[in-house]
Amino acid sequence: MAKNINSVSFTILLVVLLVASTEILKTEAQTFCFECGPVPFLGTNADCFNCCKTKYGSPPVVSGVVEGSEKHCHCYC
What we know:
This protein has 77 residues and is α+β, with helices and mostly antiparallel strands. It contains 2 helices and 3 strands, in the order αβαββ. This is Defensin-like protein 206. It comes from Raphanus sativus (Radish).
């Protein structure tokens, strides 16, 4: 019985380590911090990110996304 419990515990530990090492559980923990460019922003997400990097620096800015019905360029930290 103890051998089976040790085997199960070891298997669960391996699965947890695998998930942690491959970042499967990693969430998008970025938070909105700035806006950049004109409204509506007519560029792509890459253009938005470049605007954010130029204006605010990287870090703190880690991504830029054009979103919303009015097409705002949102910078995320």
